[in-house]
Amino acid sequence: MHSPQPTPRVLTNVDHQRLFALVERHDTAPSDTGALDALMDILDFADLVPPQGVPAQVVTMRSRVVLMGQAHGSTRRLTLSYPHDDVSGGLSVLTPLGTALLGARVGQQVTWTGLDGATHHAVVAAIQYQPEAAGQLHL
Fold first, then answer.
1. Which of 31, 43, 65, 84 lies 20 to 30 angstroms, CA to CA, from 25?
2. Residue 135 lies in a domain
3. Residue 75 clears pLDDT 70, i.e. is over it
4. Residue 21 belongs to a domain with what CATH number?
5. How far apart are CA 103 and CA 105, in angstroms?
6. Residue 4 counted as domain residue
7. Is 31 within the bounds of a domain?
8. Nearest alpha carbon to residue 130 among 55, 77, 46
9. Tally of domains in the chain
C-alpha cells in the first residue's frame, strides 16, 4: 500500500537545486534521516517555477515569516534558512518546522512534530520579506 503523495508545494528552481544538493551531500546521524526524507518528499513532488515567477505569498528560502500559533495565539517571527546560514532568527529548513514552512502560503496552516513528539500547528500569518518579491532572485 502506497502512502498518499504530499500536496505539491511551489518552489523556485533555484531553491530546489540548492536543497537537492544539500540533501545529496549532507552527512547525517541516523536520527536526522527523517528530516532529510521529509525534505526529499517535498522536493520530489514540488511544482517548480523560476524565481521571478513565484507568488509573493509563498514561503521560499530566506523568507522572513510571521507565524501565529494555534494553541495560544502566540506570534513568532523567523527566517527560513539553510543549515549553514548565520541568520538572526534563522530556522533551518532541516528542522521539522522549517520543512513544514517550505512552499507554504500566507493563510495556510502548517503542521509539524516537535522534539517533544507532540504535533504542533501554526498559521503563516504574513511574509515580511521574500527575496524573490524584493528582486533578490539568486539569494
1. 65
2. no
3. yes
4. 3.10.50.30
5. 7
6. no
7. yes
8. 55
9. 1
Residue 43 has pLDDT above 60, yes or no: yes
3-state secondary structure 85-129: CCCCCEEECCCHHHHHHCCCECCCEEEEECCCCCEEEEEEEEEEE
With beta carbons less than 8 A apart as the criterion, state whether 101 and 80 touch.
yes
Cβ–Cβ < 8 Å for 102, 42:
yes
Percent of the chain with pLDDT over 70: 88
Range of the domain at 93: 10-129
Structural domain includes residue 44: yes
Q: What is the pTM of this model?
A: 0.87
The span from the CA of 70 to the CA of 5, in Å, is: 25
- Tell me the one-letter amino acid at 127: I
* Strand 75-81 versus strand 109-113 pairing type: unpaired
Enter the C-alpha cell of residue 67: 507565524
